[in-house]
Amino acid sequence: TFWTGLRLREAVAGIPNFLALGVPGMLQLCFEWWAFEVISLMCGLLPEAVVAIGSNAVIMNISSTVFMLYLGLSISCSVRVGNALGAGDGTRASLAAWLTIGMCAAAALFCAAFLLAFREDLPRLFTHDEEINALASTLLCVCAVFQIPDAINGAVQGILRGSGRQTLGAKLNFVAYYLLGIPLGCAIAFGWWHLGVVGLWVGMTVGLFLVAICGTLLVYGSDWTLLAKQAQERVAEY
């Protein structure tokens, strides 16, 4: 067949459905990225801000590099879960979801052990400032623990994307970082124990642990048969 001309109404008919998934999916990632930018800004308000900002930058670089592993697994999970649900196979989608959570948890344990083992050496890849290196080495202990909820939450976020529940994923990240992690981190850093940048990361870790647990329970309680039916209904619309 040949192109018969632009049919604008048909061309834009799917945009609302696309945005209904795309915008919450964007917020899933942005809520997480923005939260760490807020932490960086908070470091500037701490005593000895230069050292705090420097050590936080070191940890952010290391943590972001490690997170690429979890992100890759999360994206793969989105594809596998989405394909399985679109094919009407809720059992296969559930299997892919739990395998991803298990793989991310295993990867997190390995990465945590690696960060702890080389906590004195890794900061020296970024700077020769001994004050920054000393604080970054301490931060890596917290960062190692942070890997576990970060990886599990990454897996859960991928599962939610693949099952068409991006809005729920965005809400989880908002609660994790803005209602729990950042306020708790600021309280520990500036108020309760004056732990500085270490306190900021402790708060983020605690907040993310709570949400990772909630997210895992959410996956456990998912009705995969219903999700498969909903996915097929969305496919049928096109």
What labels would you give this structure?
238 residues; mainly alpha; 8 helices; 0% strand; elongated
Task: Describe what you observe in this structure.
There is one protein chain. This protein is mainly α and 238 residues long. The protein has helices at 8-12, 15-43, 49-86, 90-117, 130-162, 166-192, 197-220, 224-236. It has 8 helices and no strands. It has one domain.
Quantity of strands, as a count? 0
- Oligomer classification: single chain
Main beta sheet: none
| Ends distance | 19 Å
Can you give me a brief rundown of this structure?
The protein has 238 residues and is mainly α. It has 8 helices and no strands.
List the helices and strands and how they pair.
Elements: H1 8-12, H2 15-43, H3 49-86, H4 90-117, H5 130-162, H6 166-192, H7 197-220, H8 224-236
Helix pairs in contact: 2-3, 2-6, 3-4, 3-5, 3-8, 4-5, 4-8, 5-6, 5-7, 6-7
